[in-house]
């Protein structure tokens, strides 16, 4: 039997046929409407601890750039927020388009961004990433929108907490 093809080739409209959990509120990509978003004071802040030494491979397959990390122990992790435990960083990859006004998978208030970074994490309560993919709480992905600017200023970096 053929393995399902992940990505845009199979299309998100068809993912639920092979993975029923990917239907309805669990579907991706999504459009976020800020008027429908509400603050939840019970959520804890996120904690991220990423060790760049854990990067094992970097590859560009023509559609994305992907970095795979050593996930054999809790070297690079995401926890807290809505998560009930630690999630290990498996890989990161990018989505981009042919112009700076689209490329992100997700949309906020009707706006697409130039690109999107996905940090893919898995729950180590499962024996491996493949098993975690089949579980409701097995994988979590942190998405970060990317914008293109004509010129970066040091004030932009400092203002964003980068220095």
When the domains are counted, the total is 2
Q: Main sheet, how many strands, which sense, barrel?
A: 7 strands, antiparallel
CATH class of the largest domain, anyone? Alpha Beta
Helix content: under 10%
Distance between the termini: 51 Å
Segments where pLDDT lies below 50 for 5+ residues?
Answer: 1-9
- CATH architectural name of the largest domain: Roll
State which percent range the strand residues make up. Answer: 25-35%
CATH topology of the largest domain: Carbonic Anhydrase II
Category by helix and strand content: mainly beta
Tell me, briefly, the overall form: globular
Q: What's the Cα radius of gyration?
A: 17 Å
Quickly count the helices: 3
Identify the CATH homologous superfamily of the largest domain.
Alpha carbonic anhydrase
* Chain-averaged pLDDT: 85
What layout of secondary structure does this protein have?
Blueprint: H1 15-18, E1 31-32, E2 46-49, E3 55-60, E4 65-69, E5 77-80, E6 87-96, E7 107-108, E8 115-122, H2 129-133, E9 139-146, H3 154-159
Describe this structure in words.
This protein is mostly beta strands and 163 residues long. It has two domains: 1-30, no CATH class; 52-159, Carbonic Anhydrase II (Roll), CATH 3.10.200. It has three helices and nine strands, in the order H-E-E-E-E-E-E-E-E-H-E-H. The chain has helices at 15-18, 129-133, 154-159, and strands at 31-32, 46-49, 55-60, 65-69, 77-80, 87-96, 107-108, 115-122, 139-146. Strands 2, 3, 4, 5, 6, 8 and 9 form a seven-stranded antiparallel β-sheet that branches. A two-stranded parallel ribbon has the order 1-7. Strand 5 (77-80) and strand 6 form a beta hairpin. The longest helix is centred in the last third of the chain and has 6 residues, at 154-159. The chain is globular and about 45 Å long. Residues 1-9 have low confidence and may be disordered. Its main location: cytoplasm. It is an enzyme of class 4 (lyase). GO terms for molecular function: carbonate dehydratase activity; zinc ion binding. It catalyses: hydrogencarbonate + H(+) = CO2 + H2O. Keywords: Acetylation, Cytoplasm, Glutathionylation, Lyase, Metal-binding, Phosphoprotein, Zinc.
């Amino acid at each position: 039997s053929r393995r399902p093809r992940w990505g845009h080739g199979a299309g998100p409209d068809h993912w639920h046929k092979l993975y029923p959990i990917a239907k309805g509120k669990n579907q991706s990509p999504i459009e976020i409407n800020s008027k429908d978003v509400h603050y939840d004071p019970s959520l804890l802040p996120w904690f991220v601890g990423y060790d760049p030494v854990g990067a094992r491979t970097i590859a560009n397959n023509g559609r994305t750039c992907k970095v795979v990390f050593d996930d054999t122990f809790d070297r690079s992790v995401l926890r807290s927020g809505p998560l009930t435990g630690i999630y290990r960083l498996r890989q990161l990859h990018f989505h981009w388009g042919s112009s700076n006004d689209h490329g992100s998978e997700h949309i906020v208030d009707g706006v697409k961004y130039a690109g999107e970074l996905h940090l893919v994490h898995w729950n180590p309560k499962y024996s491996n990433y493949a098993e975690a993919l089949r579980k409701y709480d097995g994988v979590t992905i942190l998405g970060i929108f990317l914008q293109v600017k004509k010129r970066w200023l040091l004030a932009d970096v400092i203002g964003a907490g980068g220095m």
